[in-house]
Amino acid sequence: MSDNGDKPKVEVLPPDGDGVPGPDDVRALAGPPGTVKSDAALIDQRVNLIFDLICRGWRTARIVRYVAASWGITERQVENYVARAREQMQALHEQTQADGLARMLARHDDLRDRAYTAGDHWLILALDKEDAKLLGMYPRQAVEVDLNGRSIDAAIEIELAKLAATGEAGAVTDAEVS
Q: Can you list the domains of the chain with their CATH numbers?
């Protein structure tokens, strides 16, 4: 454990040294034969490897089939590992988004300081507006849809008829809609 109490990140290095997780890496994390319960370090390595496989584009069904057979565990357990890997992805995405917002606001603060020094009040105003948008300080914009008193279905039918009359849309039969 590190000084701050966080778990150390377990790096999964492929046995062949190519830097890309693959079937050899999956087989390497099978664990000892006859093992009923995996320890925390092995679980972390497995979740990290599945994280890498997801990033490489492996579909969940492929991961589940291949990993369950390679590690000798149930498909349900692999699904649990996949869920944990996806939770890590979500947390990473949220952190990246928060970091990006913080960096952007810091850049705006720097520009604002320079604008004050230069007396550029229009830039200051523009930065304030942009910051307010980024921080969600403006109310949501309402969108109005004018159906000329018709229901949405009637308005769609009229628009489709106009498109069909001009040849811009293919004719759709009732059988195709149902």
A: 23-87 (1.10.10), 89-134 (no CATH)
